Amino acid sequence: MSYAYSTTDALCDVSLSVGPGELLVVAGPNGSGKSTLIEVLAGVRRPRTGRVVRRGDVALVVQRPDVSPMLPVTVRDVVTMGMWRGRFAGRTTRADRVGVTEALERVGIRRLAERPLATLSGGQRQRAFLAQGLVRRPDVLLLDEPTAGIDESGVLGVHELLREETRRGAAVVCISHDPHAVAGAHRVLRLHEGRVAHRPVRESQPRSTPSSSAIGS
Ligand SMILES: Nc1ncnc2c1ncn2[C@@H]1O[C@H](COP(=O)(O)OP(=O)(O)OP(=O)(O)O)[C@@H](O)[C@H]1O
């Protein structure tokens, strides 16, 4: 598929597929089209040509969005929103609340649950949005530089979380410049000026062999 902003061809003839249990890392220089690709895969942007096939529930973890100090939401609220699947869900069940606490624990910010989101540091906020993506155990997890602003020991924890997600069968696509992420990936897709620089190369065997693609274009 291809995607263009008004004056810029951001993606040209990009084709990929990711199966359940696979971790695909998307790498490439600034401006090469990585964020655009994740947004097109997530359905936030519609490809200009071609199509994206998604199987199952898809969650997107964006890169530390700016938060207005006026926004009256706590960290727990933000993670709970991850349960909504794109629409307001109203009341939460006890199981939802347990799931939210577990997600907060997995990303190491359970103690911050009742804090207003706007009072968090950048790295803490990134963890909150990671928990939002993890909370409903999606079939497809798309992440735009999830370790941005996260300290060194936290980065390793995030990589382990992504491997855990693949072990339970999720298809994971993660933008990262981090050599650890690249080393731990099943495949790496390198973009250059909106095109695939090399075909994805299998760098290690996935723990479960994908039977069909969970997402592809
Ligand atoms: N909203 C926009 N309007 C116009 N052009 C855009 C827009 N967003 C991105 N672009 C352009 O599209 C191309 C791809 O941008 P994209 O953000 O996808 O790259 P990236 O690889 O994620 O970069 P980075 O590593 O800096 O985050 C770039 O040339 C960029 O300038």
How is this fold's topology laid out?
Blueprint lengths: L2 E2 L4 E3 L5 E2 L4 E5 L6 H9 L10 E2 L3 E4 L13 H7 L12 H13 L15 H13 L5 E5 L7 H16 L3 E5 L3 H6 L2 E6 L2 E8 L12 E2 L1
Parallel strand pairs: 4-8, 4-9, 6-7, 7-8
Antiparallel strand pairs: 1-2, 3-11, 5-11, 9-10
Helix pairs in contact: 2-4, 3-4
The structure holds adenosine-5'-triphosphate.
Adenosine-5'-triphosphate (ATP) binds next to helix 1.
State the main characteristics.
217 residues; alpha/beta; Rossmann fold; 2 domains; 6-stranded mixed sheet; 3-stranded antiparallel sheet; 6 helices; 20% strand; binds adenosine-5'-triphosphate; ATP hydrolysis activity; nucleotide-binding; Metal ABC transporter ATP-binding protein; AztA-like
Short recap of the structure:
This protein has 6 helices and 11 strands.
Q: How confident overall, as mean pLDDT?
A: 89
- Structural class based on helices, strands and sheet pairing: alpha/beta
Could you give the order of strands across the largest sheet? 6-7-8-4-9-10
Number of strands: 11
What overall form do the CA principal axes indicate? Answer: globular
What is the rounded Rg?
A: 17 Å
Which architecture of the largest domain per CATH? Answer: 3-Layer(aba) Sandwich
Low-pLDDT sequence parts: 203-209
Secondary-structure element string? EEEEHEEHHHEHEHEEE
The end-to-end span amounts to 6 Å
Write the CATH fold name of the largest domain. Answer: Rossmann fold
Q: Specify the biggest β-sheet.
A: 6 strands, mixed
Q: DSSP strand (E) fraction?
A: 15-25%
Bound molecules: adenosine-5'-triphosphate
Percent helix: 25-40%
Give the C-level CATH assignment of the largest domain.
Alpha Beta
The CATH homologous superfamily of the largest domain is named P-loop containing nucleotide triphosphate hydrolases
Pfam families: ABC_tran (PF00005)
Keywords: ATP-binding, Nucleotide-binding, Transport
Domain ABC transporter: 1-215
Region (Disordered): 195-217
